[in-house]
Amino acid sequence: MSFGSFDDDAGGEAMSDINMTPLIDVMLVLLVIFIITAPLLTGSLRLDLPKVQAPPPPQEPVVLNVGLRKNGQIYLADRPITLTQLAVRFKAAAHQPTPATLHISADVAVPYGDVAQVMGAAQQAGISSIGLMTQPPSAAASQPGR
User: Fold this and answer.
1) Considering the domain boundaries, does residue 140 fall inside one?
2) What's the whole-model pTM score?
3) Is residue 109, in this structure, part of any structural domain at all?
């Protein structure tokens, strides 16, 4: 393998260029090997699994989305509803086989007492999983100096 010549017309210096073609060839061969062997590494083990009697998997919880506006209007799934009707719906949802979850979305200007009334009606009905929905801050508001 020749890296250069030491002729008088070359100035007595060795050639400093490296031929990259063999290195690229080796890299491509390794890439092909990895492409071929990668699916073999994720192979599954074939088993004959036993069959057993088991209860069905738990169902997804029923989610009740309640919204409160600053004018006092209450919404259940984007439909207007009164607090007494909402309490009846909470009792029906609490007696379902799957546990009910309450998500409350309230306007910033809604008095805390209105939110507390909805939460109290849910707890009296037997709904213990209650979440208060918020909106993340915008990117402009989270920057310092604004």
Assistant:
1) no
2) 0.55
3) yes
What b-and-e string marks burial along 112-139, b requiring 16 or more CB atoms within 10 Å of the CB?
eebeebbbebbeebebeebeeeeeeeee
SS3 content of the chain, % helix, strand, coil (to 5): 35, 15, 50
92-141 tens-digit pLDDT: 988 888 888 999 999 999 999 999 999 999 999 999 899 998 887 775 45
Q: Which of 71, 77, 76, 61 is nearest to 118 (CA)?
A: 76
What residue has token string 């607090």? 83
Which residue is listed with tokens 């309640």?
66
User: In whole angstroms, what separates CA 132 from the centre of its chain?
Assistant: 19
What is the pairing mode between strands 74-76 and 79-81? antiparallel
52-to-43, 56, 57 alpha-carbon distances in Å: 26, 12, 14
Which domain, by its residues, includes 99? 62-132
For the chain, the domain total comes to 1
